[in-house]
Each structure stands twice: as structure tokens, then as C-alpha cells.
Specification:
This protein has helices spanning about 245-255, 255-270, 310-320, 335-355, 355-375, 395, 400-415, 420-430, 440-450, 455-460, 465-470, 485-495, 510-520, 525-535, 545-560, 565-575, 575-590, 595-605, 610-615, and strands at about 50-60, 65-75, 80-85, 90-95, 100, 105, 115-120, 125-130, 140-145, 155-160, 180-185, 190-195, 210-220, 225, 230-235, 240, 275-280, 290, 295-300, 325-330, 435-440. The protein has about 625 residues and is α+β, with helices and mostly antiparallel strands. A hairpin with a 2-residue loop joins β4 and β5 (about 100). Bound molecules: zinc ion (ZN).
Length: about 625
């Protein structure tokens, strides 16, 4: 995904009134067999849990999903029970091979929810769970019509990564456990449902939609969206879904998606998921994008009107190799997912836009990494690539390190072995691990066997232990060519020395040059400097969410009030945490607490529960 920062302590779960039955004659515990993934209580790795049949209906009045989840299982190890993850689910009944059985919902475990234990025997091949979600389910956001783009119909979408799938489906919810699924979803007649599966392209009158996902995926890639949604094809295998009034804009912005898929394929092998579509969500979506297979979920803040922010789609697309195809075994190995994806994303950008363009992305990423390491502290273990998330909600430890330090590590290897060799290695890595999971240690072993091959000089140059098991940014971190940014720096210095901004040579600049220009300004600027910049470049009116956000942070610091009305407008519409968190933080840090509090009070309900969770700790 891009980017989901939960740099906040985990919160305690809210449990629904879950039914409980524990009238077993024999205890169901068999503690010898548990997954190595500490964030799932499922014993799926000792069973073969192969397929899910889901039959659910979506209730907008109650904010619940209810139905039946049927898991097809095999039991080669003669286990006496199957154990699934749940969080806040009400379990009405369970059948095992068609017959009602007594089940047990175990005690809640902090961050993990309640394990659902179902007795099975050797001949068992399915368990069927009738259940209902809680209105507070962490994966689900229910939007009122007012919170959507078109403001006509309600909307629902899921965000299952990292361990939230269990709040809407009883499932073995670990990234190391894969299964196929089929679903029948009933929604209000005027709405359409989409999933991370084969999708409809038109609404039907019945409100009943059928889905199949024939390739095995982990639970965190289960996804559902329901709303007034329309489809427009880009080419024969890519297309865009959005609310009707957003559709044409979105399709125009993403017109190069087909080329992007081809470009990715020429780097690391064929795209194996059939169609590649993107769903543009309503503005409250708290993250940039989520790589749900076949159907990326994306924030509308990438619809800038000039195709300048579509790099995010390159990121989500790249996940169809790193993450979706080859998956991190546990959340401690998250860098295998995001680090590879950022590296791959930048290679797609380079192929499509040239080296100097990709160099700017690398440099902005490096700046983000420096900021993140500074924020966490350069000896903090959360700055290691291999994480230890024991006892925590995984999202507490998932930060920019996995993305930027992970990508930089791969870039370092590429520079040392040469691009040709590294590309061949990566392609072989994706092919040989397709639809499998891998952990950090297995990857390092594979790297040794296939690429380093005992070359001790190369090993010395790479300093692998420092990158993977050490803190901060290792001394051999590569930096990208900064030629285009050095031109920007020169123009910025002219401005700082009093040159009229209208006289600066900015005509050829892309979003990335503008971001570098603004990021490196002295802070705060004077009101007069802000006003001069605004007159020359109209930042306050920018439709580019990245630039507007940075500008509004500078406006808060400088107390440049002419930008405040548009800033409020921005805060009222945008729910992407990456943007709103810095704005509220800057208000709180610069003596504008009353402004922060009044704006937050007004717009809090527009934000996703995960964004609220972050902001509640900042604005108080
Ligand atoms: Zn990602």
C-alpha cells in the first residue's frame, strides 16, 4: 500500500456482543501446532485451507455485513480443530460437513481479536460459519452520501491490510496463508459491488453480484467496495471505476495505465492477474492506494488534472509482483513487500519518463527516509528492515523504513552487481516464488546463492547485516544524481536573496521539482515572501494535492492567512492521512491550537476511523 503510517500506539479493540459457546467435552487446545506468524491465531499452516465461498449481504442502515463463510479444508495432519481469526464478529452458528457443531470463541487477545475454534475430524472437508460484522469493524468504512464525491448514495469500502480482514470475514488472517475465493454479495439495488476478483462492469437490477478469485491470495488482499460506481475502459485489459461524476476525469488522468502494465512486464515478467483496473474511492480514503488484486483502490487526490501524480499507480501495479505474487511471510518481513515495490515502481517510472525523472523520485524518497529516521531516532529498532512486532499491532511498526530503506538496499545491490545481472536475478526471484511466501532469512539465502555466490568482496561492499538487522541509514547508502534538483536549489537561493519569483526559471518544472523547491525553503518564510510566491505561482489555488498540502503547511508556519480559506476547504474534503496529519500537527506546533481544534471538530466525521485514531492524539 502507499502509504499507511501508523506511528501511534495501538488501540484496544472494541468487541461486539459475540456469542460464546464452550460446551466441549474435550478441550480443543492443541498448542503444539501454531503458525509462526505471531499476528494470526489460526492453525492454518498445519491444515490445508484452500478455498473460501462467501455469501454475504451488505446492510447500510445497520452498518453491518452478514452471511456465511464456507472454508474448504483438508486435514492431512489429523488435527482436532480448525482455528480462524475473528475481530468483533458475532458468530451465529457453525456447521462442519453440513452438521451443526459447537464452536468456541476464545478470549480476546490484544490487537489480534478472538480466535474461533471449530472441532473437525479426519474426513472433514468444509466448515460453514454464519456470522455478522460489528458496526465498528476496523476494516469497514461506511460513508454517508455527503461523504462521497457525487453526494447521492452511501458508499462502503474495506481496508484489510494488515490484520483487519478478520473484522469482516472469519479467516486465517496472516500474509503467509493463501486461498482462492468465490463470493455472492447482495447490495441495495441502486448500488454496485466490486471485489479483489473478476468484477462486473455494469450495475444490474437485482443488486446481487458474483465474484471469483482463482489465484490464491492472503486474507489482507480480500477487498470489497459498494457504491454508485461506473466503469470506463482504458484499453482491453485496464480500466477505471469511479463515482459517475468523477469517471471521465479519472479515466483521462490514468490513460497510460495500459502502457504502465506493459512497461512493468518488460522488466520483471508477465502480469499474471488477468485484468488490471483501478477504483477511485471517495475523498475520505485514508491512504494513497491499496494493491487489492485485479482492482487497486486509490485516493482521488491523485486526480490532479495534469497526470502529474499517477506515479502512485506505478506503485500499486508493482505490488502485483512484489507483495501479491511473492508475499512476505509475516509482518516482520514487511520490507520484502514494500521495499521491492518502491524499487520496482521507480524502475517503471524510469522506463516511462527517463532517468533524470526517476532520480528525482529517488532523492525525494531519500529525504523522506532521513526525516523518518530522525523522527524515530537513529538507534531505534523500528529502523531495521527486519522488524520485531511482537506484542504490537503490526501497523505500529510499519513506517517509511520498509519502503525507502528497503528500496535503497536493492538499489545498492543493483549498483554493485550491475543492472543487467540484478534484473535477471529479480525476474528469476519473482518467477520461482510466484504465489508463495518468503521471509527475510530465506530471501538472504536466495540472494547469496543466486547473486552473491561467495563473492566476499561484494559481500563486504553491501554490508547486508547493517542494512537488514541494523539501525538508521548505513554509510554505503547510494544517492541519486541530483542534477535537476541542483538547478532548483539555485533558483530557490535566488529567491531567498530577493529575486522576484516571477523571474525564476521554472517553466519546465514537474511536480517533483516544485516539491523540492518548497520542501527546502527556510521555515518560516515571511508573509511578504509567501505573498510574492503565491502571486507568481498561485500555490493557494493549486489542484495538485502534494503541492497544495506542502504550501498549506508553510502557510500555517508563516501565518499567511490568505491561504487559510483554501486550507480549510482542503481539510474538509481530503481524508488522506499523509496530507491532513502534517497540517494539524503544524497548527498545534505553532500556537494555533484553537484553529486546529475548531477545524478538527468540524471535519472529524469526514475522516476514516484510522485517520481519526491518529489525529485524536495530535489535536487535543
Ligand atoms: Zn505499497
Amino acid at each position: 500500500m502507499k502509504l499507511l503510517f501508523f506511528c501511534v500506539p495501538a488501540f484496544f479493540l472494541i468487541y461486539g456482543c459475540t456469542s460464546f459457546s464452550s460446551k466441549h467435552s474435550t478441550p480443543l487446545s492443541d498448542s503444539s501446532i501454531f503458525s509462526r506468524d505471531i499476528h494470526t491465531q489460526s492453525n492454518a499452516d498445519s491444515l490445508q485451507i484452500e478455498h473460501l465461498d462467501l455469501d454475504i449481504s451488505v446492510n447500510f442502515a445497520e452498518h453491518t455485513i452478514a452471511g456465511v463463510a464456507i472454508w474448504k479444508i483438508k486435514n492431512p495432519n489429523h488435527l482436532k480443530f480448525v482455528r480462524l481469526d475473528t475481530d468483533g464478529l458475532t458468530i451465529d452458528s457453525v456447521r462442519s460437513n453440513g452438521k451443526p457443531v459447537l464452536f468456541s470463541l476464545e478470549k480476546p487477545v490484544a490487537h489480534l481479536g478472538r480466535a474461533l475454534t471449530i472441532p473437525i475430524h479426519d474426513g472433514n472437508n468444509e466448515v460453514a460459519i454464519t456470522y455478522k460484522t460489528s458496526p465498528n469493524a476496523r476494516a469497514l468504512q461506511w460513508l454517508t452520501p455527503q461523504q462521497t464525491h457525487d453526494k447521492k448514495f452511501p458508499f462502503l469500502y474495506t481496508q484489510s491490510e494488515s490484520i483487519y480482514a478478520r473484522s469482516w470475514v472469519p479467516a486465517p488472517d496472516g500474509p503467509g496463508i493463501r486461498f482462492t475465493y468465490a463470493a455472492r454479495v447482495k447490495v441495495p439495488n441502486e448500488l454496485m459491488a466490486l471485489m479483489s476478483a473478476e468484477n462486473p462492469q455494469q450495475k444490474n437490477d437485482s443488486g446481487i453480484y458474483h465474484f471469483t478469485m482463482n489465484m490464491p491470495i492472503p486474507a489482507y488482499l480480500m477487498a470489497l467496495a459498494v457504491g454508485d460506481i461506473a466503469f470506463k475502459a482504458i484499453d482491453n485489459r485496464t480500466g477505471v471505476y469511479a463515482e459517475p461524476q468523477m469517471l471521465d476525469k479519472a479515466a483521462w488522468e490514468l490513460v497510460d495505465m495500459g502502457k504502465m502494465v506493459s512497461s512493468a512486464e518488460s522488466l520483471y515478467g508477465s502480469y499474471r492477474w488477468g485484468r488490471y483496473d483501478v477504483l477511485i474511492l471517495p475523498p475520505g480514503f485514508p491512504i494513497g492506494g491499496m494493491e487489492n488484486p485485479k482492482l487497486t483502490f486509490a485516493t482521488p487526490t491523485i486526480i490532479a488534472g495534469d497526470r502529474s501524480l499517477v506515479n502512485l499507480i506505478a506503485h500499486e501495479l508493482a505490488h502485483n509482483w512484489s507483495g501479491n505474487l511473492v508475499t512476505n511471510e509475516t509482518w516482520n518481513d514487511f520490507w520484502l513487500n514494500e521495499g521491492f515495490t518502491v524499487y520496482f515502481e521507480r524502475r517503471i517510472s524510469e522506463a516511462m519518463n527517463g532517468k533524470s525523472y526517476a532520480d528525482m523520485l529517488w532523492e525525494l524518497g531519500y529525504q523522506d527516509l532521513v526525516t523518518e529516521v530522525k523522527a524515530l531516532g537513529d538507534t531505534n529498532k523500528d529502523t531495521h528492515l527486519k522488524l520485531n512486532l511482537a506484542g504490537r499491532d503490526p501497523d505500529d511498526g510499519l513506517n517509511d523504513i520498509a519502503y525507502e530503506k528497503g528500496a535503497l538496499f536493492l538499489r545498492l545491490i543493483e549498483i554493485n552487481v550491475g543492472r543487467k545481472r540484478f534484473d535477471a536475478f529479480l525476474r528469476q526471484y519473482f518467477d520461482s516464488h510466484a504465489f508463495k511466501t518468503i521471509n527475510t532469512e530465506a530471501f538472504l539465502q536466495y540472494l547469496n546463492e543466486k547473486l552473491i555466490q561467495g563473492d566476499s568482496e561484494l559481500s563486504k561492499k553491501l554490508q547486508i547485516p547493517a542494512w537488514v538487522y541494523g539501525p538508521g541509514i548505513p554509510s554505503n547508502a547510494p544517492r541519486a544524481d541530483r542534477e535537476r534538483f541542483s538547478i532548483v536549489d539555485a533558483e530557490r537561493l535566488k529567491f531567498e536573496k530577493g529575486t522576484d519569483p516571477a523571474a525564476l526559471a521554472t517553466a519546465q518544472w514537474t511536480t517533483h521539482e516544485w516539491l523540492h523547491f518548497l520542501r527546502n525553503m527556510p521555515k518560516p518564510l515571511t508573509v511578504a515572501q509567501m505573498s510574492n510566491l503565491d502571486q507568481a505561482f498561485h500555490f493557494t489555488q493549486s489542484h495538485n494535492s502534494e503541492i497544495a498540502d506542502l504550501w498549506f503547511v508553510m502557510a500555517i508556519a508563516a501565518n499567511y492567512t490568505p491561504a487559510f480559506k483554501e486550507m480549510e476547504q482542503f481539510l474538509s474534503q481530503v481524508g488522506r492521512r499523509k496530507f491532513i496529519e502534517p497540517l494539524y500537527t503544524e497548527m498545534m506546533n505553532t500556537g494555533k491550537e484553537p484553529l486546529a481544534k475548531s477545524l478538527y471538530q468540524k471535519y472529524r466525521s469526514n475522516y476514516h476511523p484510522l485517520a481519526q485514531m491518529t489525529l485524536d492524539k495530535i489535536v487535543h
